[in-house]
Design goal:
This protein is of the alpha+beta class. It has 13 helices and 13 strands. The structure holds adenosine monophosphate. Adenosine monophosphate binds next to strand 5, strand 7, strand 10, strand 12 and strand 13. The site of adenosine monophosphate has 17 residues, from strand 5, strand 7, strand 10, strand 12 and strand 13.
Length: 355
């Protein structure tokens, strides 16, 4: 749990002059673009010269850059950043570059509930949360000797699916596994992947009802993963494996997608259940989160992962998605975050959505 007190952090703030800040990477173009649309000042925390890159995208460029030598240094400059009334928007790279421990104690008002990290970054806790909410997860195989169907082996802390591998037998597992690393073995779920982008507001009730606040579905994507997604151009996975070529799961991009409409009620049921359980466990997964799912041939969902912040899969939707367009025109996740901060400021509720 964080020792940071949001009330104390906000006390010296001029909340009428908030600056939206994030690390220049991941989904920062969308975050800055959305914040500007809502009239916020924006600040990009960058390592080295990023200005040239942002010149290429003027509508996604922050008003100001804050340059550090190393992302880990951010913690040393919090006083300076607080003087600028900075609210930090975390994303995957932000948390990764700073490190989870440092992020938890970062002395800056941060969008969302930081305590979610404790539940999200530990696979056992993540399972307690998700299965406790009633969603179905892929079966976990505790003893590799029990492998009797295709499994995916995931190394703990591996970023972007790096090093993950598929095994169909115990022998194959033994052949591939790196023994010095800790891992989880999951049933490899056959079906189609959908990465569902939700937004949970604990302070607004104008969307899908949740016991406290409401829930929106802003968009969904499918990740493009190299080499698994295109490896079949060279031959079947079986053929390639015999040659010692193994598919990998490294994310390189995101593809927009919509789902058959009859599945959407399940999407909301799952989102609501995950939010309700999060409220019970740690005060709620506030703001954006993503359920990573596989839809099986009997049209049921298996959730293999949760990301509890804006995900890069929202980036195809800078000017809205087929779902968010039905909520408000031109609504990206980045813009929705800015709107939540604006609403909270206006109604004196910032402490409910920042941590
Ligand atoms: P993760 O790091 O858990 O998001 O997994 C990386 C990638 O591996 C996902 O984007 C999927 O393509 C794939 N994957 C993960 N878990 C499973 C599963 N249980 N069944 C099938 N594919 C999976």
């Amino acid at each position: 749990m964080t020792e940071i007190n949001i009330h104390d952090m906000l006390t010296p703030y001029d909340t009428k002059k908030l600056t939206i800040a994030t690390v220049c990477s991941h989904s920062s173009l969308q975050i800055f673009n959305g914040a500007k649309k809502e009239g916020f000042k924006t600040l990009g925390i960058s390592v080295g010269e990023k200005q040239a890159f942002y010149k290429a995208f003027p509508l996604g460029k922050p008003d100001e850059f804050f340059t550090v030598d190393n992302y880990k240094d951010i913690a040393r400059f919090t006083e300076e950043l607080r003087e600028k009334n900075v609210v930090v928007i975390p994303h995957g790279s932000f948390v990764e570059y700073l490190g989870a421990k440092e992020f938890l104690k970062l002395d800056l008002p941060t969008f969302g509930n930081r305590n979610v990290l404790v539940w999200e970054s530990n696979r056992d806790k993540e399972r307690i949360w998700l299965e406790g909410s009633g969603v179905t997860m892929p079966q976990e195989i505790k003893d590799p000797k029990q492998i009797n169907k295709p499994v995916i082996v995931k190394y703990h802390g591996a970023k972007g699916g790096k090093g993950f591998f598929i095994a169909k037998t115990y022998d194959e597992f033994l052949h591939r596994v790196k023994k010095n690393k800790s891992y989880t073995i999951q049933e490899f779920v056959m079906g189609t992947r959908y990465y569902l982008h939700y937004f949970y507001s604990p302070i607004q009730t104008n969307a899908y009802p949740v016991s406290v606040g409401s829930l929106q579905l802003l968009s969904m994507d499918r990740r493009d993963e190299t080499t698994i997604d295109e490896v079949q151009r060279l031959g079947s996975i079986q053929e390639l494996e015999e040659l010692g070529i193994h598919p990998t799961f490294v994310v390189t991009g995101n593809i927009p997608i919509v789902m058959r409409e009859s599945l959407l009620p399940q999407v909301f049921n799952m989102g609501k259940a995950v939010v309700e359980k999060s409220i019970e466990l740690f005060g709620g997964v506030i703001g954006s989160f993503c359920l990573e799912t596989v839809v099986t041939e009997d049209l049921t969902f298996k959730v293999f992962e949760i990301s509890a912040r804006i995900v890069a899969g929202t980036n195809p939707y800078v000017s809205g998605s087929p779902y968010s367009e039905l909520i408000q025109e031109d609504l990206s996740t980045g813009r929705r975050i800015a709107q939540e901060i604006k609403y909270a400021e206006k109604h004196n509720l910032l402490e409910k959505i920042l941590s």
